[in-house]
Prior knowledge:
Strand content of chain B: under 5%
Order of helices and strands of chain B: HHHHHHHHHHHHHH
Largest sheet of chain B: none
Largest sheet of chain A: none
Distance between the termini of chain A: 16 Å
Shape of chain A: elongated
Distance between the termini of chain B: 14 Å
Number of strands of chain B: 0
Number of strands of chain A: 0
Order of helices and strands of chain A: HHHHHHHHHHH
Strand content of chain A: under 5%
Structural class of chain A: mainly alpha
Oligomer: heterodimer
Helix content of chain B: over 70%
Amino acid sequence: MFKIKKFTFSISVLVVVILVALVGPPLYPKLNLSLYAGTPDTPPSNEFPLGTDRNGRDILSHLLIGIRTSLYVGVIATIIALTIGILVGSFAGFKGGVIDEILMMITNIIYTLPAILLMILIASYLKERSPLFVSIVIGVTSWPWLARAVRAQIMSLKEREFVQMSKMSGLKGYEIIFKDLLPNMASYIFMSVALLLSISMLAEAGLSMIGAGIDPSTESSLGVMLQRAQQGEAIRLGRWWCFVPPGIVLVLITTSLLMLSTSIDEYFNPRLRGGK
Amino acid sequence: MSREERKPLNPMLIYLLRRMCFLLATFFVFMIIIFSLPRMIPGNPLAILLRDILNRMTLQPETIKEIERKLFEQYGLDKPVYIQFVDFVSRIFKGDLGISFYFRIPVAEVIFSRIPWTLMLLVPSTIVSWIIGNFLGAIAAYKRGKATDNILMSIFLTLSQVPYYWLAMILLFIFAVRYEIFPLGGTWDTSRFITPSLTLEFITDYLAHYILPFASIVLSAIGGWAIGMRVMAIYELGSDYVVYSDSLGLKDSKILEYVFRNSILPQITGLALNFGSVVGGQLLTELVFNYRGMGRILYDSINKLDYPLIEGIFIILISTLLIANLIVDFIYAYLDPRVRTGYAEA
């Protein structure tokens, strides 16, 4: 698998980012998350490698913690969306009939309403602003596409002989789903995990930017950092160090996740490798 | 798979009716969500709403009483829940979206004064990005595996993963702050006391403010369209009919024409669908460029806790989206022979 360059590249980037999030904060000697840690609006210097923002926050400290928060939101939201998506999709696909109709009706309804709008709507009313809450809001709104895809795969898999055999040997429905069908979709599920992670981290940033995400006064995430830059007019004042670093990290993570998912796809579907 | 043969029009009608029922159901579910959300805040919802308003502005005691009375009336909190819901829905269908807490004028007025600006920004930029994206995607597919494809694809992949609002920030920073080519945002130059009108002066000023947000939306959307088109076209290029036509010795250009026609169909659906969701997906562009559209007031309404306005914006956005969906269904039913003959549904 490491023969696919994209795979090696994206995995290395992700490992580095995760390492930075885990060991970065304890290793950075000047970690300081408080307001007025330094002179406001100073460009990168030896004292503050990424400068400070309008309120004197040390950007590097907040970036290190922000990556952590963003990854946390991504992981929790992905776990939630993955669980709902797989359960709904596999039950609908396997059971068929009325259960399928009802589950797919619900799925399609949520699918038709754009997830980001639903998230903003829910988050703007329920004014809880913790990372956990934001992850839950993202998780419960971003599963429909997965449910549809899982259902489609289950529908085609369940006609195969080995499933018929399991049925004849008296295995229960959920046993067939978990022992026969889902393992056969492992590559697809891995791909979905990568996509879900990227979707939820972008969603967190978008939510925080519009003011319906994580509380910027208590926590930092990549989205919160962009939101602070936007609110503090950092762009118009030319304080590039406030919004360039969090954006680059975000793009690095999401692009690697996308590359990871396409390289998994290429690995398991050699037809996609095309002209090589 | 094909259903029983009937008169040629029937399957299409059935398909459209089913889709209409589905979209109505979606609208209904959305209504339930938007109806129940304010009622899910624990405690006395009015007290909490009032506190939020008071946190944001200082009001005379008489005004507070007045607002409380208005809120009570608006939510009809003394009636049973199902009657409240019926009232709520019928009020919306009458076009009554309540009064904005912040602007103190009807929500519908606030929204409709901003919609044209949003449409002027979103419609042209979406169409342009769709055309460029499909064109480049088709080229990449045709040259698949070669250097052109690799370069184009890495650009598209990155572009599609760059958060559009960050791209907007970067463009604003480079072209307005660093090089001062374009104004620092806004919709028109308010310091020059010009008002929106069809004069040359206003239009040139508006265009100067327009180019950056326009470019930012086009750039951020191209990647997605191009990737979609490339996938579709490559899939078509590998399909049996292409191999067969090729072995028959059909001209490349003829085959490409077929491929293009077959792969553009889902892209058309995507375009029409996107007009609805693009509004949700580009809300923050307006914020970054300080452009006076729906995204800008949604941001303001969320941060000022202007609930009637939040509610109104969402009702308008979702209704637009569902209507766009319905239009797509009509186009689709018309364009796709499989739907026409009742072979498959979307």
